[in-house]
Amino acid sequence: MRTHWNLYYVLLFTSFFTLTFTTQTQAQENTTPQFLAKDVITNFDLQQKIIDTYRKLDDYQVHKTVNIHDTVGAVSQKSKHEVNIALDRSNKSIAIWNSQLKIVAKDNTLKSTIIPSVGTHVQIDNINPLDPVLIQKNWPMFPILLWTPDLSLYFGTEIQLFLKRMRFNILPVGKDDPQDQTTLELKLPKMDLRLTIDNDTSLIRHAVLTMRGLTPEEEKTTSIFDIQMQYSQPNKWESDLFTIDTTNSRSMPSLKALIEDAHSTEPLLDKVAPHFALKTLNGNVIDSNKLKTKVVVLDFWSTTCGPCKASMPYVIKLNQWAQDNNLDVTVLTINQKEDPELVQEFIDKQGWTLPVLLDDTGNTTAMYRAYSIPQTVIIVDGKIQRIFQGFSPRIADAWREEIATALGVNP
């Protein structure tokens, strides 16, 4: 099962970087960042210039693309995440969000909610939103090494030590390399860190962290965090950017409880299946109210989900079994908020033939609480009868048994 916890990891260690960075810099004046000198400078001079640049930034927004490649022994898994951060230091406001979670710190209150909302939130009152120490005490979930790749936003004590005291090397610019950037590299026994600096703005546009280790069974492990960053300084903030509406929302005691509640599918069982109307890849709309079969099977997936890729051939076999036996069954797959061209390219490569619905807003994912994928939902006579999270051949057998029982046929 590919849970979206890793999305929360990416978002939250990003938020901690942001919070700590703002604490270090909130007393600084709002001045124009220093640009890198065009003449030759030492690596230590360059490292200090980067620190000074971030200290002088006030209001800005950054979009981050985070590619993670984990390898354990001969097994590897890749994932891609998008993270957004907005900082309005003059009003002591921060917003951090991705496709699954939003965090807002403002007016001595920190709020978090699932996106799209499932009617729950976490709220911490009487807290300085820009104090990372207090935030960490409330969410002591992530080791410092997980924070390291987010150097673009975090220049607190730990990272200043990296930039001031560690010996980064300035890599030579190759003939095919962009001439408007400088690359710093740090090599340690269990960690490598490479930073690409924009020469015009002194901002870090690219960071790559590689960590190496061993499992208890002595298998080699490698984790690579590859982060691309795009900065902007909006003239005007969106009106709801630094707000989370908690009207009619249930307060949860912790972030862990919030996420676990969102992942729980128990409240959906034996209830009327939520309505959806989603476009397919070819532009047709499938309205769940117009599905007339006794059994409807929904399979939630994404292209970055390894277990989804393993599961889909079995979903196709399930559909073929239903068709070969003229069973009153509709099988649909629902992709979660991915670019249609990417999805089309992916299924063409895999040779998949089932209809693919596009949940481009994430609302259907939220209604069916499909935050751990693959998630397969069995609907009988309009009510949710069974929900399977994760995949194994045994689970695939259980799909067929559940459907056969509902229809009174042999599996």
Question: Can you tell me about this structure?
Answer:
With 411 residues, this protein is α+β, with helices and mostly antiparallel strands. The chain has two domains: 2-260, Lipoprotein localisation LolA/LolB/LppX (outer membrane lipoprotein receptor (LolB), chain A), CATH 2.50.20; 266-407, Glutaredoxin, CATH 3.40.30.10. It contains ten helices and 21 strands. It has a twelve-stranded mixed sheet with strand order 8-9-10-11-12-2-3-4-5-6-7-13. The chain has a seven-stranded mixed sheet with strand order 15-14-18-17-16-20-21. Strand 14 (277-280) and strand 15 (285-287) form a beta hairpin. Helix 2 packs antiparallel against helix 5. The model is unreliable at 2-40 and 139-161 (pLDDT under 50).
Briefly, what is this?
The protein is of the alpha+beta class and 411 residues long.
Calculate Rg over CA atoms: 24 Å
CATH topology heading of the largest domain: outer membrane lipoprotein receptor (LolB), chain A
| Strand numbers in spatial order across the main sheet | 8-9-10-11-12-2-3-4-5-6-7-13
Structural class by helix and strand composition: alpha+beta
Name the CATH class of the largest domain.
Mainly Beta
Distance between the termini: 25 Å
Largest sheet: 12 strands, mixed
CATH superfamily of the largest domain: Lipoprotein localisation LolA/LolB/LppX
The pLDDT mean sits at: 78
Number of domains: 2
Work out the strand percent: 25-35%
Helix tally equals 10
Q: Provide the CATH architecture of the largest domain.
A: Clam
Principal-axes geometry comes out as globular
User: How many E-type strands?
Assistant: 21
Helix content: 25-40%
Low-confidence stretches: 2-40, 139-161
